Amino acid sequence: MNTPAVFPAPAAPAAPGGADLGEYVRRHAAADLVVQPRMGMSDPEEMAAGVRAVAGARARTVATLTIDSYTRVGDESGARDALARQGRINGYPITVHGPERTAAVAAAAGDRPVQVRHGSAAPGPIFRTLVRAGLSASEGGPVSYCLPYGRVPLAESVAHWRDATERLAGECDALGRRAHLETFGGCMLGQLCPPSLLLALSVLESLFFVRHGVRSVSLSYAQQTHPVQDLEALAALRRLADRHLPGEIDRHLVLYTYMGVFPETRDGAELLNEHSAELAARAGVERLIVKTPAEAHRLPTVPENVRALRRAADAAARARTSSLLPRAHDTDHGAVLEEADALIGAVLELSDDIGTGLLRAFEQGLLDVPFCLHRDNRGATRTAVDPTGRLVWADPGALPLPRRTGPSAPRRVRAAELLGMLRYTADRYDSLGALHTRPRPLPRIRESLLTAS
Amino acid sequence: MRAQLSPTPTGRRILLSTVSSDAHTWNLVFLQLLLEELGHEVVNLGPCVPDDLLVETAAAEPFDALVISTVNGHGCLDGARLARALRADPRTAHLPAMIGGKLSTRGPDDTSYVRELAEAGFDAVCVDGAPETLLHSFLGALPPAAPVRALPSGTS
C-alpha cells in the first residue's frame, strides 16, 4: 500500500504521539472513518488523560491538543497570569508548558497521531514547540486563521504563515518526520459561506502549504445546510485537490461536523452529529472532526467526547452500507466544481506566489467572504438559504463566478432573514430531534432544556 | 409591544463595536443590518476592539451613539473598563452609550453586573433577549441629531 518513493517511511521510529497523521489516515480510511475531537485542557495531566481516552476509544482516532485563546494571539504571559489566577484556561497552552511536558502529554496517544489545533494568525511559536515535542501535525491557514476572528492584517498573517510553514516543514524533514497541515479554509465563519468559496479557500491554502515545503496535507470542508449540496461540494473538493496538487503530495479530505449555531436539545444535536458522520461516509471523506451534544451549552467532558467519537464511527460504518444519501461521486457536482475552479484560477493568475495572489484577490474582491467584517475583506458578498435549504449567493459582489452559476440579480439580506439563516440548522434539528422515534424522547428533551438554562 | 414604541428614530450616526476580548461577529453583523434598516448610518469596528482604538475612533468623528454588543461572557468586566476609559476622555465623556448581549458567564439569572456597568458610564444595559426593544427606546431617547447630519424629511 505504501509506495516508498511517494510516502517515505520515517527515518527514525516515531516517538509515541508522533505518528505520521497522513500515513495513519491512509492506512485506515479504506476500512474506517478516522474520527477526531476538538479537545483542549490547560492542565497537562488532564490533557494527557483526555489524549489517552481518545486513543483508547473503540474507533480509529486521532488525538488533539487544542490551544487556548491567549496562546493563539501570542500572549504567553497572559496565559501564565490567567492560569495562576483562575487555575485553568480554555485550552492547552503549549508554549507555556513547553516541549518536554508536551511530549509527555502526547505520549499518552501511544501509536495514534496527535494534531495541534490552534486558531493563530502567527503560528510560529506553536509550530516550533510542537516539533520539539516530537509532533508534526497541525492545521489552519493564512486566510482562515486571520479573517474571521481578529484584527491582524491579512498581509501580516500571510507573512507569518509563510515563515512558520517553511520552518515546520524544514525542521520535520531534518528530524526524519513528515509535517502535516490541514486547511481551515473549508470553514470560514463557521456557517453561511457558499460551498464554492469554501472549496476554493481550502484548495488555495493547501497549495500555499505545499509551495512552502509541506508534503502531506488535508483539505477541510464544514457541513453546511443541505446534505446533497455538501456531497456535491465534497466530490468537487476531491477533484480539485487532484487537479491542483502535485501528484506526489499525500492528501486526504476532512469534514467538520456543523460549525454554526448548534441545536440545543440532546436529540437534535445527536441527530446532527450522526448526519455529519453519514455525510462523511457517503462522501468517502477519510477523517471527521466531531462535536458533542453538549456543544450548545458548554465545553464537553472527556467521556462526552469519547462517546461522540464512538457514535460517529458507528454511524459512519452503518452509512457505508445503508443510507438514503447518494454517494458523492454519483451527484451532479459540475456547477460547484466550475464555480470553485473559477475562483481558484482567478487567484493563481494574479501571482506565482500563492500568498501574494491571495492578498491581491482579497484586495480586488475576487475573494470576498460573506458577512466577514475584517478590514481586508471587501464585504460586498451576501449568502442566502434558498427554499430547498441550499446555500446560494444573494449577492456575489465582485467574485468571478461563471455566468451560468451566479444569481440572476443581487439582492439585500435583511436582519430578520439573517437571524433565521443563522438558526436554520439548529431549529431544524431541534424539531427533527423532537420527532425522532427514540426510547425515551420526551424526558430526555425536558432534561436537556433544564440543564440548558 | 412594538405598537407602544414611539415612531422609529432614524438618521443617526452610530458607532458599533464589541469589547477587546470578544472575537464573535455574527451579533455585530446582525445589529448593523438592523440599524441600517432603521435608517441609521453604522460604522462597525468588528471583533476584538482594543479600548484605545474604540475611544480614538469615537473621538475622531461625530457619532450620535455608541452601541456595544458582546456575547463571550466577559462583557461585565471588559465593558466596565471600556466605559470608564470612554468617560475619562473629555472628547467622548458625553457620547450616549449602551451595551448588550451575554454579559456574564453566570447565566441569565445573574444581573448583578448591571449596576457596575451603569456606574462605569453606560446609559443603557441590555440584559434580556430582546435587543430590538431596548435599542429602539435607547435611540428614541437620544438628543436631537446635529442639523448637519439630519436626514432630509420623508426618510422616517
From TrEMBL, chain A:
> Would I find Signal among this entry's keywords?
no
UniProt GO MF annotations: cobalamin binding; methylaspartate mutase activity
Keywords for the protein's UniProt record, in alphabetical order: Cobalamin, Cobalt, Isomerase
Q: Which domain of life is it from?
A: Bacteria
Chain segments annotated as coiled-coil in the UniProt record: none
Protein name (database record) = Methylaspartate mutase
- The answer to whether keyword Iron applies is no
GO biological process terms on file: anaerobic L-glutamate catabolic process
Extract the Pfam families matched here: Met_asp_mut_E (PF06368)
Under the heading Gene3D superfamilies, the entry gives: Methylmalonyl-CoA mutase
From TrEMBL, chain B:
The residues covered by the B12-binding domain are 11-149
User: Which PROSITE patterns does this one have?
Assistant: B12_BINDING
Molecular-function GO term, any one: cobalamin binding
Chain ranges passing through the membrane = none
Tree of life domain: Bacteria
Q: What is this protein called?
A: Methylaspartate mutase
Biological source species? Streptomyces termitum
